[in-house]
Amino acid sequence: MGRLWIIRGKFKIVLAKGLKMVEQVIKRLSEFGEEVRHHHEDYAVSSISALREKGGVLERGGLHFHFPKAFGFCYGVDKAIDMIFETCERFLTPEKAAKSQKGQRRVFLTDQLIHNPSINRKLREMGVRYLRRDRDCLLRCDNLHKGDVVVVSAFGTDFRDIENLKKKGVTIVDTTCGAIINVWKRVESYAREGFITVMHGKRHHEETRATVSQALKAGGAYIMIENKREAEELADVVRGKIREIDFIRKHRDALPERFYLESSYARMGMANQTTMLKEESLEIQEILRKAFEERFGGEGAKQRFRCFDTICGATQDRQDALKELLQKELDLILIVGGFNSSNTSHLAEIAYERLSLYHIESAGDLLSKSEIRSRCPRDGKVEVRKGWLKSQTRDIGITSGASTPDVVLSDAIQRILDLR
Q1: Which of 1, 220, 246, 397 is the most buried (most CB within 10 A)?
Q2: Taking the C-alpha atoms of 48, 52, 58 and 64 in order, what is their torsion angle to the nearest 10 degrees?
Q3: How confident is the model at residue 95 (pLDDT cuts 50, 70, 90)?
Q4: What's the CATH fold of domain 55-73+314-419?
Q5: Which is more confident, 191 or 13?
Q6: What is the DSSP string of 297-346?
């Protein structure tokens, strides 16, 4: 006989040998019931994990690998990995799925779980599938059946996707990062109070799309800003130097449908994709604040413009730790993480032009002692560069983005030692 638990107002039956969901939304690892485990620990390497909090030097083969005080997996990524691999064990692993009442189910992801190629490749090998999106970037749910399991990536997804998934009667495993949910709450409050959300983020990034949808959910609107140049254009709209209609036509893909803006009445609130560079976000805030002050005066600006720092603490810790690491005398630095990872690419931007920098995804990019495949943080091009590992190289700085497991760092270090 199973035990009846009530979790956050949702009924759940936890069986001795399996799990039967009455309510179809799982938001915490604990909500799976008994016998759960922390799957992210499978990707840890003790010698590297020991350096995570205080930084330090790992000496191997006559080389010194210098680590910052913060790098690699963050809490949000730990949670996402724990939840999706627990989902796979419950519903995709034959021996465990057979113990549940319905046996094996189909498991889908809304987007890449995190921006790490090794983790995403492992999930595909286990049988996890990806849902497609339509022209409006909403999930296509037509082929889903009751009993399917859909995992929401750590970046979250559009609120309309969740509504559509619930209508299909699927089990939803929501791994959305808590730091992102906090930004959503800020955006919702802007919308309820009549403020347009100005979102500093990458326009087509999963997190940015999910966050601006929260403004629509609360009856508001948004403007996506990718950089200071676009912020200056919006500032000129506020000042009345650029016509609203011209700005709207130019940035159609950064605005919701049927968006209307009258700058003389506009009120705006800033939010950020959690993995952006804090310095750039602060500069954008100041650009817009000054525009409001010029048009409406100091007191008017306070009533019409709001800003809060919504950069993720883990992201900021990794950026600050890298800046400290760059004060050391290093021969080169490796930034390890997905080429499409926002927080990793910003780490590369911080180190760019300070010394020999190489942003790689994995040990596989270390082609030989003379050639390396890396991404340029300036233009985003991935290309093979020569002469990276010199005979006199002794001190190597190394760090990783929040979605990069320690085992990937360990493999890169071993590859360097093999090449030497």
Answers
A1: 397
A2: 130
A3: low
A4: Cobalt-precorrin-4 Transmethylase; domain 1 (3.40.1010)
A5: 191
A6: HHHHHHHHEEE-----HHHHHHHHHHHHHTTS--SEEEEES-TT-HHHHH
Residue boundaries of the structural domains of the chain: 25-41+76-176, 55-73+314-419, 179-311
Fold for domain 25-41+76-176? Rossmann fold (3.40.50)
Q: How far apart are CA 364 and CA 377, in angstroms?
A: 19
Task: For 43-71, give one letter per residue: b (16+ CB within 10 A) or e.
Answer: bbbeebeebbeebeebeeeebbbbbbbbb
In degrees rounded to 5, what are phi and psi of residue 167? Answer: -65, -30
Tokens of 406: 């320690």
201: which residues sit within 8 A by CB, 6+ positions away? 207, 208, 211, 224, 225, 226, 272, 273, 276
Q: Between β-strands 171-174 and 129-130, what pairing exists: parallel, antiparallel or unpaired?
A: unpaired
Q: Helix or strand or coil: residue 385?
A: strand
Is the per-residue pLDDT at 385 higher than 70? yes
Structure tokens at 157: 């997804």
Kind of pairing between the strands at 305-307 and 268-272 = parallel
Report the catalytic residues: 207
Determine the residue type at 42: D
Q: Tell me whether the CATH fold assigned to 25-41+76-176 matches the one assigned to 55-73+314-419.
A: no
